[in-house]
Design brief:
Blueprint (H helix, E strand, L loop, with lengths): L1 H26 L2 E6 L7 H16 L4 E6 L10 H6 L5 E2 L25 H9 L1 H7 L7 E16 L13 E4 L3 H9 L3 E4 L5 H7 L4 E4 L1 H6 L8 E17 H6 L2 H36 L3 E4 L2 H22 L1 H9 L5
Parallel strand pairs: 1-2, 1-3, 5-6, 8-9
Antiparallel strand pairs: 3-8, 4-7, 4-8
Length: about 325
Amino acid sequence: MFKKITSLFTAITFFAVTSFGFSASAQTPIVVKLSHVVAENTPKGLASLKFKELAEKKLPGKVQVQVFPSSQLFGDAKELEALLLNDVQIINPSLSKFNRYTKKISVFDLPFLFKDAKAAASFQKSKEGQALLKSMEDKGLIGLAYWHNGMKHFSTNKDFRVPADVKGLKFRIQPSDVYESFIKSIGGSAQKMAFAEVYQGLQTGVVDGQENTFSNIYSQKFHEVQKTIVETNHGILDYMVVVNAKWWNSLPADIKKGLSEAMAEATIYNNQIGQQKNDEARKLIVDSGKAKVVKITDAQLAEWRKAVAPVYAQFEKDIGADLIKAAQSHSLKK
């Protein structure tokens, strides 16, 4: 009799523990790691935190978003590889990082393609721009959104205005064949370098200059080790928020819906503060007196445009003439 009671107690205990285990497992939130390479006080850094806030609010107890800024988890040379291995689930690299997966994305790297950030945003919302978000799914990547940062400008350790002034200078670039050709077209030499290494590279003279938005220049203190920043507005520094395709497609419908809604709202937030942060950063740089900020004339702009014309001819076949034309058309809109 005692044995039967013991066996019954053991069975009940096992059932309770097992049931509790399944219940706890069912309640364990899905951990979503979001990694990026910039500081938290930049548009991308703030929008990443906003996404975490929104996702956890929409999916309480179901999702936990962990944000790793400033290359804490992966640097920009490793983050795409990490995403494909599912070591991180969401990253938001600059658009130039995707050209190894589709050459069409290099359209965003073409110099002086867009007259301003508004034209770039208009293209991204178009049929052609939206198609690029889905163009790498067969490579394991799905784009969820474009995040704006702003227009890019050149800075160097010398005074300059036109391409002839920077001949022979070494510029840090992101890995991009278009960027490399761009720098060559203005008489400079290109040096590929991770974002986290740029400040030291400028400080030690490994490179003479770089190109970036005002918010990144200020947050990374590049203005402290550069003499002149010229407002060339030669390109956009926007990002594509991408996820591991296999992971994303395996998510339960309610989780995917909540994360998609959070991303849409975080994107609006990012794009609202992007210009504001760049304007603030520009003023802070000017007020610091450490680097001179210079506007160029229409005549000087024409010299830059003339110098980079061969870049378009070189990459037209890879990118597609129709896609380039579609992107250019958004700069003609009033």
